[in-house]
Amino acid sequence: MPSDRDMGGGGAPPSGRPLAFRLMDWSLGTCCALLLAGLTGLTMVDVIGRYWFDAPLSGAFELTQLMLCALIFAALPLTTAAGEHIEVDLFYSRMPRPLKRAVLILGAGVSALVLGVIAWRLALHAIRLAHDGAVTNALSVPLSPLAWFAALLAALSAAIALLRMGRGPTV
Amino acid sequence: MTESLIGFAVLLALLFLRVPIAFAMALVGAVGFALMRGWSATWSMVGSVAFDTGLSYSLSVVPLFILMGNLLTISGVSHGLYAAANHLLGRARGGLAMASVLACGGFSAVCGSSLATAATMSKVAMPSMRRYGYADSLASGSIAAGGTLGILIPPSVVMIIYGLITESDIGKLFIAGILPGVLGLLFYVAAIAVVTRLKPELAPKSEGTEPFSARERLGVISVLGLFILIMTGIYGGFFTPTEAAGVGAAAAFVIALAMGGVGPRKLFGACLESARTTAMIFAIVIGAEIFSNFVNFAGLPDGLAIWITDLELSPYLVILGIVVIYIILGCVLESLSMILLTVPVFYPLMYELDFGSGLLSDPELALIWFAVVVVVVTEISLISPPVGLNVFVLRNVLQDVSLGTIFRGVTPFWIADILRLLVLIAFPWLSLWLVEAM
């Protein structure tokens, strides 16, 4: 169980980390906060508009989908960097130190591999969506930029997982 | 079917080597799928699963309910819940522990996560139980156990995921969790009463209760109001469960501001936390989807259903067998991935099992009842050694209490949970009565 995880909420981004990471926390964090605020606000406007003004927001459904997708991929590098993907460390704590090191490398390696493949497939998906000119039904929002966004952030997450291969068995 | 069993074995081996659950499931699922259907089909499956899961409208409840819980956590309404529960039960023997359980139940009604409930309440209830000289085992055990109610009492992230896998009505799943959740509260309070009667030294009598501040009163009213808003909203048909999450998050934001003491920094922190938890959950959902594509293609759920039906066992025996599997899996797996891995395999059985006449003869109701059973077993896994997550949450907050002490403390609650599980299996109407009455 990740011992550095605080499920209680409210923690500010940790300081004392490399500048690149703090910059990422700040920029992607702001992006996520705006998306969450957007998802919340959108629902409120939609529900209130429907009942009080008899004017449901057209395309609220689609906007929710798009913002959700952006939120997940924007948060993925943050989760990966914070080591918050759930792991079973039942046996890990009883392993000798060299084995711990090997196990950490394996875990980070598999993470990087899977995230890398996902990034690659999302990029190809984005190219195909652009080629087909795929847009959403109601608002005609082109889908390919979102797929590119997802691909890039999955690639960033893969890179972060690779970096985490080098960390020592301290936990 | 053999292929899927090999897949499960490899997956467990990777998990024990501390490969993140999400990525282990994706890797095994993709390789297994590729060996059976070829690589090009696999590559396009991986890409579309990742993108389409992100675009899933019904999953937008997940970040919003998490945000709602985190906003309420920083707002400090939990102090009010604890003070109110204390007012009610504080004078009984073990009353502070009972109050902790009750306050956990109250917080569960606005929070969909067991870990968040336990983490929040531990910061509130633990100091006061220590001040009155409660044993660490009883004090921490009651919070760890009370926290598990987070995924049973609506809203519940786990119920949402179950609803998506089985295509059940999320509103009905939510309402089915209410009575079993209340039953859980009663059983926990009874467990505390029994334990403190047997070992009075665990819980010294406390001197009356502390005064109830205006801020605490506002906290209780907000939580009650929010729960009523969400439930009447869903059942009155004013909004869908998906929209309820958005409305709930907006209301929680207003509550956090009204309670005072919440600045932009804390708000940003709560958003960041919610976003990271969301990405963690979606990574597991994507991984599990890839894995179950492989397992389904390999024919495990169908094979299992045919095999079980051929055995002509009593349906309740089958359910008990599944429960035993869950309890064993729960000792090693994290709750969300356990549900994502097993429910797709087991739920088709609910259509095949013959429960005779009565409530369970309707497969839709049987699925809802099974959801309650699965969630209660998952609650048990959250406090089962060696990896019960809620126990680890308590351990993180209370650095000076050993894991052994907390596990000793949850034992009476664990026994109460097993009894509750048997009661819920024996009397399906406990889960289904409210669903039917709606």
Give a verbal description of the structure.
The complex is a heterodimer of chains A (171) and B (438). Helices cover 66% and strands 0% of the residues of chain A. Chain A is built from four helices and no strands. In chain A, helix 1 (19-52) packs antiparallel against helix 2 (60-81), helix 2 packs parallel to helix 4 (144-164) and helix 3 (97-132) packs antiparallel against helix 4 (144-164). Mean pLDDT of chain A is 85; it is low at 1-14. Chain B has 22 helices and no strands. Chain B is globular, with a radius of gyration of 22 Å. Chain B starts with a helix and ends with a helix. The mean pLDDT of chain B is 90. The interface between A and B is large, with 70 and 85 residues.
The biggest sheet of chain A, with number of strands, parallel, antiparallel or mixed sense and barrel status, is: none
CA-CA gap between termini of chain A: 10 Å
Residue share in β-strands of chain A: under 5%
Q: Helical segment tally of chain A?
A: 4
Q: Give me the number of helical elements of chain B.
A: 22
Give the ordered list of helices and strands of chain B. Answer: HHHHHHHHHHHHHHHHHHHHHH
Radius of gyration of chain A, in Å, reads 20 Å
User: Whole-number average pLDDT of chain B?
Assistant: 90
Uncertain segments of chain A of ≥5 residues (pLDDT<50)? 1-14
Helix content class of chain B = over 70%
User: What's the Cα radius of gyration of chain B?
Assistant: 22 Å
Largest interface: A-B, 70 and 85 residues
Please give the number of β-strands of chain A: 0
Largest sheet of chain B: none
Detail the poorly predicted runs of chain B: none
Mean pLDDT across all amino acids of chain A? 85
Helix content percent band of chain A: 55-70%
Describe the global form of chain A.
elongated
